[in-house]
Amino acid sequence: MRMTGGKTQRWIAAVVVFLAVVAWAPTARAQKEPDGLFTASKEQLAVVKVVLMQESAWNRGNLDEFLESYKVAPETQAIIGGSVRGMANIKSAYHINYPNRDSMGVIAYSNVEARELGENFALATGKYHLDRPKRAGGSAEGTFTLIMEKTLIGWKIIFSETT
Fold first, then answer.
1. Domain 42-162 carries which CATH code?
2. Where are the domains of the chain?
3. Which of 6, 13, 25, 152 is spaced 20 to 30 Å from 59 by Cα?
4. Model-level pTM greater than 0.85?
């Protein structure tokens, strides 16, 4: 098969484009599909530990221990049946919304992720599934978002919201 100059150049250009696409495709797939391997920093692990401690306290029915993860400060905010600020108000709102063990049910967190937001702040997100009797409100599920501040006594929640 004999090609003229113009056809040869077009053919070479087509081959180069084809090879570029073939070489690029695995890289693009790798960016879209993470391999699941991830090394968390010490701070990210500390933030996730707070979330898991909350889950454990909740499932033991210990609402006050669950609330110990919040920073005691007037600007600490929780979205729980509306926006609530300050630990006394947050504690009150939780006790009103979850007055007994049945209303608390059993919670399971999943897809928990932590991301550092500078030296002293972090974001934790994830999903939750709350399993409780129908008479106590029934099961619920959704997502949570926590903003935490690194304090002298460890990571503390300064903002929380569940949807």
1. 3.10.450.50
2. 1-37, 42-162
3. 152
4. no
CA–CA distance, 69 with 49 (Å, rounded to integer): 10
Whole-angstrom distance, CA of residue 70 vs CA of residue 78? 9
DSSP 122: E
Predicted pLDDT at 139: 95
What is the Cα gyration radius of the chain?
25
pLDDT, averaged per 10 consecutive residues of the chain (163 residues), comes to: 51 42 41 62 95 98 97 97 95 96 96 95 98 94 97 97 94
Element spanning 78, H or E = strand 77-79
Separation between Cα atoms, residue 7 and residue 78, nearest integer Å:
68
**Nearest alpha carbon to residue 146 among 132, 119, 127, 118:** 127
